[in-house]
Amino acid sequence: MKTPFIPLTLFSITTATALQSPLDPAININTNTNTNTNTINNNALNNNNNMKTGNPILPGWYADPEARIFDSTYWIYPTYSAAYESQTFFDAFSSPDLLTWTKHPRILDFANIPWSTNRAAWAPSVIRRPASATANGSSPYDYFMYFSAGDGAGIGVARSTTGLPEGPFADVLGKPLVPSTVFGAEPIDAQVFVDEDERVWLYFGGWSHAVVVELGRDMVSLKGGYLEITPTGYVEGPWMMKRDGVYYFLFSVGGWGDDSYGVSYVTGASPTGPFTTEPVKILSGNATVGTGTGHNSVVTPDGRDYYIVYHRRPVNDTERDHRVTCIDRMEFDAEGNILPVVITAEGVDVRPLH
């Protein structure tokens, strides 16, 4: 594993209706004209079994889902899975229980980001921090979104203009936060991790290289230097999490357009490694449930139960952009190893947050 370090000084740090394919999975959508959002009841997906969420959990073609919990609400920030030219915005989804979801369309639109490529809007990451003196609105929090601004454009950062997780979000810098390739890592697939010591880390990287860099206290600047942390087999989609003092680095392996796509993980004693375990693959597709399983996030409502949120393709569907967002349980053994994930059509138990 390579772990070189590059000082930042070497780099120049410079609501509408969402598109939907006619082939999107059939669901019940009740439009709420007062809030310009859509409320989705997943009963159509789980055969009226109210005890399970069903899979997929979101309507339409969505990939690269980042799941978060803010207060008593689950949030998912995904990629709209379509041709590059149609990927010009980000939608979000919220739920009180993992069953009923509200769609928040176009929380960030590349039409308002002139330095973007106006295509290939990929894999956003949203994090909440205590509000700064310059925060908009009366919310006690700032919400920041880190996003891929298109092939070659870099990673940008936007802030919610309302102090709410549904945004809308507005570009902060007028230029990318991460402007170019670092250690061979394409500047895509951002993920932000806040450690227990309140240090905040930005992970990113495509083209089979993973990089981490610390974020400044303002959340819109970089601190220290870039560090390559590429595990064996890494392709894209980094996800850092911490459990019982152990840092788990999950990542996608294989090819996103075929059945080799999956998720592996390594562990270490710090958010920057070194990672001392060999990669273990924990998420794979199968021909009876779904294929092309990958680009995950992990959410836990109580620190005991863990859910992996990921995308996959429906059975017998070979169209590369036909990806749906799913959720399944993630289990650990007594030694803290992640067990192979069993992908299901049923999903997980409905889990209200209190």
Automatic annotation (TrEMBL):
Key words, A-Z: Carbohydrate metabolism, Glycosidase, Hydrolase, Signal
Record Gene3D superfamilies: Glycosyl hydrolase domain, family 43
Annotated site residues (Important for catalytic activity, responsible for pKa modulation of the active site Glu and correct orientation of both the proton donor and substrate) in this chain: 189
Gene Ontology MF term list: hydrolase activity, hydrolyzing O-glycosyl compounds
Pfam families: Glyco_hydro_43 (PF04616)
Residues in coiled coil: none
Entry similarity comment: Belongs to the glycosyl hydrolase 43 family.
Organism domain of life: Eukaryota
Signal peptide start and end residues: 1-18
GO BP: any one term: carbohydrate metabolic process
Protein name as it appears in the record: Uncharacterized protein
Alphabetized SUPFAM superfamilies for the sequence: Arabinanase/levansucrase/invertase
